[in-house]
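In the previous chapter we treated chains in isolation. Here, by contrast, the input contains two separate entities that must be folded as one system, with a combined length of 1066 residues.
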Amino acid sequence: MIFQHNINNKNNNIVVRTIMEIGSLHIIERKIIKALGKLGKADVNAVSKETGLNDSQTRRGVEWLRNKEIAEVSQHTKEFVKLEKNGFRYAKEGMPEKRFINSLVRPLMLNEIREKVKLDKDELNYCIGNLKKKAYISFEQGKIKLTSLAKNFSESPDANKEFLNLLSKGEISTENLNEEQKSMIKNLKERRDILSVEIKTERIYSLSKKGVGILSELKDDAEDSIGKLTSEMLSSKSWKNKKFRSYDINAEPPKIMTGKKHPYKSFQEGLRSKLAELGFKEMTGPIVEHSFYNCEALFMPQDHPAKGIHDLYYIKNPKKQGSLSSINKTLQNVKKMHEEKWKYRFSEAESEKLVLRSQGTALSARMLMDKNLEMPGKYFAVSKVYRPDITDWKHLSEFYQVEGIVVDYNLTLRDLFGMLKLFAEEVAHAEKYKIVPGYFPFTEPSAELHCFVNGKWVEMGGSGIFRPELTKPLGIDATVIAWGLGIDRQFMSKKGIKDIRDVYSSNIDWLRKTDVIV
Amino acid sequence: MPVMEISFKDLEKLVKKPLPRKSDALWDIFSNLKSEVENIEGDNLKIELTDTNRPDLWCVEGFARSLKTIISSGKVPDYYAKSSNSTVVVGKGINKVRPFIATAVLKNVKLNDEMIKQIMQFSERLDTTVGRKRAKTSIGIYNHHMIKFPVHYKLVSPKTKFVPLGFSEKMTMLDILEKHPKGVEYGHILKGLKKYPVLVDSKGKILSMPPIINSNDLGRVTEKTRELFVEVTGTHKEAVKYVLNNIVLAFADRGATVHSSTINYNSRKERTPDLSNQRMQVEVSEINRVTGLKMKSKEIVPLLSKMGYGVSRIKESFLDIIIPCYRSDILSEIDVIEDIAIAYGFNNIEPKKLRVPSTGEISDIEKISNTSREILVGAGFQEITSFTLVSKELLLNKMNVKDEDLVEVANPLSQNAEVLRNRILPSTLEVLEKNTHREYPQKIFECGDAVVCNKARTDGTETIRCLCSAIADNDSDFTRIKSVLDVYMNSIGVKYVLKPVKHPSFIDGRTAEIIVDSEKIGIIGEIHPQVLENFKISVPVSVFEIEL
């Protein structure tokens, strides 16, 4: 409908299309169509010369026209001959063999010839070999002399030199050479650095049938149509009574570089909102922790392998380790429970050591000891945790964990399973899920959540009820459900990432291209 | 988590029942033991055992022992030890080094190559986990026939010589610690001792040097060995006894008879192994309180037997139960309740909608971080994320900074992860360094954590949330980054002033502290060309970083 006024009541599809196309032609395209109309067949140089465009504009314009089937491009391969270093020299000085012969006014020693004609070793060797073969020269008492056959050769004009002279003015297509010249090329090509033959592809432009049609429709005033609308046109009202050039709406736009969030950060942000929506409050805490919150408060015995230097980073600086004097009562309760149940001597100094948080559960321990703990309460944390692992496609020495707790009186396994069902449905969007017995050191009973997502079973997370040996010393008499979700894995499966290092990618190209929908 | 490779046929022989060959069906059965099928290949079955507190499952015999009562209504056999006249005399000073020992004799043992391999793997797993890499407990198995009792567990001079397993010549214990692979691996456990523990028989033949290595003659077990002497030494009494139980029960399940030993400590005598069962009373109300079910005690009894427990008394309100001797993981009632729930079937426990009223909320620091990220994205910046554990080289040398008080880890695995970054900027420049071949302008930012030393706090450190943004481009300069800072500050409604400052990472005269309420919150400026050169960045970079 937009173009109705352009077609002068001629309800003919082809005409409509042609006019639409004429309307949408770029000024460069218009110039090229006109030039080709005038030149017929032409290469890029000729078209550029005619239009005043530069070569790359011309090439681009022709490419546009070709896509619209207005212009045609035919390719021809041609051989071009051009001179090399020695070729230029011989064009001036003459061919070495000619000079060699001409120097032999009397029999000469080889070094005398060299002195006289200034040829290098290769050239001398060629001359001797070639002239001897043709029997123009012979050797006598160490000297070289001409034979009777040589006369004819020395008196004939140096055709090679003339040919090289011709080439020294610029490369020549073999199409323009005669048979004699062609055979000279064949010989000279084999000699060092005289000339080279290069095969070039030549592109010849011409108008298609459709292009010829468009040319006839291309009115002179078309260049007067409006391209970019400017504020000046608006204020001067000069746009009135003019036509707007139609744009090629399918043309590739230039790329713009927009600001974007990191996909993994976006994913975490979404998870935070989701958990807050489900009634969970976010917990935060320090990266450098007392061993106490990270281990002992969770009823992890002090000789547990996960406390060893292969599983936990200890701190060298600051040298002074932490202090737990402010929570001494809880520390003593925890110590008593450890000694009673694990049957060993608990070291307070070990508890005060500083470590890098190795599990998000440290935050839950802190929360349970916090005087602001809400009862009932639901909490979560997205926490960075650290483990001494060599970084590879499966392991990182720092990564994120999402976990939390639900605190209330009279919570049962049924509530725990209800929460896992909620996670399966609301967080993982699983088609189906399975709850199976699991093992986590701090919880009893423990359960794993497996979800069927994107056609496969994935272990989504773990959960359980904190052991009474954990909660009691912290002064909690309510039930505490603890849970954790494996978010790295979820994110990787969503994004089709195989190498865990790519989750934290800082490849700017990838970040610019990757969508942030998760 | 241990992974165990066993034979299907062997497992079926032990449980006396055929098993499904499909991994899904197996998973359903094995999940009762918190185990997963890793792989099935012909007769070869690979099982992952996730419960690190149940080493009794880490051999095919133990796994079958618990599986049997789950898939058929069998009972756990009553394990007992016959008496024998094997005695171990504990010498002076052992109590200060590796005080505990428990031993047993096994007769009617029928071994084949595969079983020897399996039992060695089981011992290895026990030594590594329960034994804390042999520091807490370690196992030794010997040819019983060759030993002349009583055996002495005592301390001897490090110059004592014997032929260690796998070697052909006598070596001093000192040499063994230095040259034998096991000595190199576990020698640290004996570090600093003037005398080393040894097990030696009445004829003066050395059995082993615990916890390092057996001797090559007494300590060599072959297919032909019919009687074994098993010994566990260690530093934790319960662990030592428990490990011994696990080994002897594995043989007992294969038809061997267990015979006890007498351990003669100086002041007292003890008989090992102790295969007696533990007893516990479990309240029915407690079971129902945890599971959310309404079971009567009679309904609970079959569930207990399914999990291998015995029941000695059934009352309406409680049950007296018998815990098999291999279940050292049972610390309290709650562990038994979990087993009851597993036997009941997690699938049969109906989920209840979680009705814990609470208001959800994202933390303040994340809220302000999100707002900050949105403003910078709006200003056309690409968010990046980088690691917080970095090299000193990055924070100091590359940044032209001489020395700073950094939080440093004691046990780094590589120089690339030895200190926590105290600000984000070095990481940001590192990201630019990695992207020098990509299209400019590069406008990036990160909102993330850094950790600084803070003597005022009990943990001596403080985790801070920082925002760092950088423009890398031919016409990147102070003005351009200042307009970003300006739009950011305006958007969060904070008034700030800039105060000129000198900083070795920045160009003098184009660097300022960002001050809010007369407190320094960050820095803005053009990165010094020397620093750009250190990072091989060949365009100007201007940045600001603030603490949120």
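Chain B has a mean pLDDT of 93. Chain B is about 30% helix and 30% strand. Compare these points with the single-chain example from earlier in the chapter.
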